[in-house]
Design goal:
Elements (H helix, E strand, L loop, with lengths): L10 E3 L1 H10 L1 H21 L4 E8 L11 H10 L2 H11 L2 H10 L14 H7 L9 H11 E5 L5 E8 L2 H58 L11 H35 L8 H4 L2 H20 L8 H93 L7 E4 L12 H27 L3 E3 L39 H10 L4 E6 L8 H10 L4 E5 L5 H5 L19 H4 E3 L6 E3 L9 H15 L4 E7 L3 H5 L6 E7 L4 H13 L5 E5 L3 H10 L1
Parallel strand pairs: 7-11, 7-12, 8-10, 8-11, 12-13
Antiparallel strand pairs: 1-6, 2-4, 2-5, 3-4, 9-10
Helix pairs in contact: 2-13, 5-7, 5-8, 8-12, 9-12, 11-12, 14-15
Length: 688
């Protein structure tokens, strides 16, 4: 592989080279892996094992639904708040609880909890090396091995403790949980006792206050003559209401009597039949007279069939009938008089009731003003009575809870710590495996860095194209082709053809960075493949840029159809990695034509940008143009490019015609290359 020039800074890492370097030194990698794994196993075995166990406590309301009161419900809501649950962590890790647990298990005599005394203290001050630890030091040691936390979005507290003794790792969390619950219950008992004493004193004071308030109410009621009737109303107000109701009834009765008397009087004055008046007809006497009158009418009608009108019997019956009408009129007058008497009586009663109501109004107004003060005294007495009843209820509840020792704590242990079966640290197998992996990675990375820094694993990489790069192309009228120093120019006149071997040797001896190969025939074979392989065979970094419409050169170098890119490298739809492939036979690279096009002026500039970028990476950029018109070919030329016209066997005339067209366009340094038969090319490749 050729050396990368000083301006060619971008390189690719040769993965195959790195893999082969690792495989070549696999024994060193294996030894490093085994050494690290052995060291990890030894350390994990020598380190004293540490066991861990945990106890879980749930914070919840423990009060029964049958004994729960409104105050306990509100207190439970405060206990179950997130802030209150978090505060329980501080309670569990308090020095009092940890100190009691340490004293219970005599942790001061355990070597695991011994203080770390410095060597200077032992030498200079001769401190006690074997004496017991101070309580504060024991608590700090416990805190280092203790972890209390709350599970996320739960009211569950976890107490974890680690120790070299598995039994101690189990007993410490359980003891801390029990001590926490015991202290919480003790706090509730103390609070209940204090509340009972306070309530007892308050109840005694309230009983006196209630008695005084009720006495004031009774005395004021007696002094103000505010007697209470039905529905707890003042007697004057109740009497006023009753008199008003009776007065309304009396007025209605008077109006009805006057109306009935007026209707009877009107019937008499107008001479109407009295039997049409309802009040007259309602009289029993009138009803009897009407019945007698009906009987007389029937008898007269019966006798009229046999007797004459002047018969004494008929005349007697008619006289009796007239007497009945007189009696009915007299009875109607009595009914009218009775109604008038009734109306007058109702009027007199109305007057009396009105006077009584006026008197009661005055009394009720006086009672109303006095009742305001009475209600104020009653409210004070009622409030004192209600407060006394509430305190007495709470007092009895507190006495009952204290005597029966029913003070449930709003927490319970639902998962006690169990004896751990295996240590949580060190884990021999994971540590050994991790150490082995670390040894493998250490050796591998060291070998990879060695290969990279030595440059053996680096190869040139195409530079990415920048949008601001502006290639400088010469115009067609000033474009010139770089001459190629052929080995024996005298033996190769312009009319004769040069083969690929001679041209390859000339290119190796020259510094031409770009070579354009054009076919003299529209259906000619891709000629750049032969030259690119010739240069690659001599370890020259070469890339063949395939500008043929069908990517014939790329296919000839073994690029499969599905690997041909379809984007444009300049506008970003395709990258160099999509377009550049490696020749199956040599180390030459090939860039497919799928990402490049020569359709307009912008396309020529883009192709120029790509060729300039490739020229900074590769020693030689071989451009296989296929068959291109002369005017199109001139636009790809610059002062450093060599131009070769490839001629198929037996088509020398077409090559000379192309040479003439190029000469007419101002390109004189053009070389004809004979492709030769395919068998000749293969034979020459095998000989090389």
């Amino acid at each position: 592989m050729s050396r990368v020039g000083p301006d060619q800074n971008d390189v690719d890492i040769d993965i195959a080279r790195l893999a082969s370097a690792l495989w070549a030194r696999k024994l060193a990698v294996l030894l490093s892996t085994v050494a690290f794994a052995g060291a990890g196993f030894a350390i994990a075995t020598l380190v004293p094992p540490v066991y861990k166990a945990e106890t879980q406590i749930v914070i919840e309301t423990r009060e029964s639904a049958f004994t729960r009161s409104d105050t306990s419900t509100n207190a439970a809501e405060g206990t179950l708040s997130p802030e209150s649950v978090e505060s329980q962590v501080s309670l569990m890790t308090s020095s009092e609880i940890l100190g009691d647990v340490a004293e219970k298990f005599q942790l001061a005599g355990r070597e695991e909890f011994a203080p770390e005394t410095s060597l200077i203290d032992r030498i200079v001050t001769r401190v006690r090396p074997e004496t017991d630890s101070a309580p504060g030091e024991i608590v700090e040691k416990m805190r280092e091995k203790l972890q209390v936390y709350r599970k996320e979005n739960q009211r569950v507290l976890v107490i974890e403790f680690s120790s070299q003794d598995p039994a101690l790792a189990r007993d410490i969390p359980n003891a801390i949980a029990n001590e926490y619950l015991s202290r919480q219950k003790g706090a509730l008992l103390t609070s209940n006792t204090n509340a009972t004493g306070w309530l007892e004193q308050e109840i005694a004071d309230l009983q006196v206050s209630v008695k005084d308030a009720e006495s004031k109410v009774a005395a004021y009621r007696a002094n103000s003559d505010l007697l209470v009737g039905q529905n707890q109303n003042v007697l004057a107000t109740q009497q006023l209401s009753e008199i008003a109701t009776e007065l309304s009834r009396t007025r209605a009765a008077r109006a009805a009597a006057e109306s009935r008397a007026s209707s009877v009087q009107d019937a008499i004055e107008r001479g109407l039949a009295l039997d049409t008046v309802a009040e007259v007809l309602a009289s029993p006497t009138v009803q009897a007279l009407r019945e007698r009158e009906v009987a007389l009418k029937a008898e007269i009608a019966d006798l009229s069939t046999t007797l004459l009108e002047n018969h004494p019997r008929i005349r007697s019956l008619r006289s009796q009938r007239r007497d009945l009408d007189t009696e009915i009129a007299r009875e109607a007058a009595k009914v009218r008089a009775s109604l008038e008497t009734e109306a007058e009586s109702a009027r007199q009663r109305e007057i009396a009731l009105t006077a009584e109501m006026e008197r009661l109004k005055a009394d009720s107004a006086k009672a109303g003003s006095e009742e305001v003060e009475l209600r104020s005294l009653e409210r004070e007495a009622d409030s004192q009575s209600q407060l006394l009843a509430t305190y007495m209820t709470r007092y009895r509840e507190a006495i009952a809870r204290g005597s029966r020792d029913y003070l449930p704590v709003d927490a319970r242990v639902f998962s006690q710590a169990q004896l751990p079966a295996e240590p949580y640290f060190p884990k021999v197998v994971p540590i050994t495996a991790a150490a082995g992996v670390a040894g493998f990675l250490f050796a591998s990375i060291a070998l990879l860095l060695r290969e990279l820094f030595s440059g053996r694993a680096l190869r040139p990489s195409p530079l990415s194209v920048r949008d601001r790069l502006e290639p400088a192309h010469e115009s067609a009228d000033t474009a010139k082709a770089a001459p190629l120093p052929l080995a024996s120019p005298a033996s190769a006149p312009d009319s004769e053809l040069t083969n690929a071997a001679e041209l390859g040797e000339a290119l190796l001896n020259s510094a031409v960075p770009r070579v354009l190969v054009v076919s003299a025939h529209a259906e000619g074979r891709p000629a750049g493949v032969v030259l690119a392989r010739e240069l690659a065979a001599h370890d020259r970094a070469t890339i063949l840029v395939d500008l043929t419409p069908t990517s014939a050169a790329a296919r000839a170098m073994g690029v499969p159809d599905d690997a041909l890119a379809t984007g444009d490298v300049v506008d970003g739809t395709a990258s160099f990695a999509d377009l550049i492939h490696r020749d199956l036979r040599t180390s030459a690279h090939v860039m497919s034509s799928a990402g490049l096009s020569l359709t307009d002026e912008a396309a020529f500039e883009e192709v120029g940008v790509v060729l300039e970028a490739l020229g900074k990476v590769y020693d030689c950029t071989m451009v296989d143009c296929g068959y291109l018109p002369v005017d199109t070919l001139l636009r790809l030329m610059d002062g450093n490019a060599a131009l070769i016209v490839a001629v198929e066997p037996g088509a020398q005339e077409e090559g000379e015609a192309m040479m003439q067209k190029l000469a007419d366009a101002g390109l004189d340094d053009v070389v004809l290359m004979n492709l030769g038969a395919p068998d000749d090319i293969a034979e020459r490749r095998r000989a090389a």
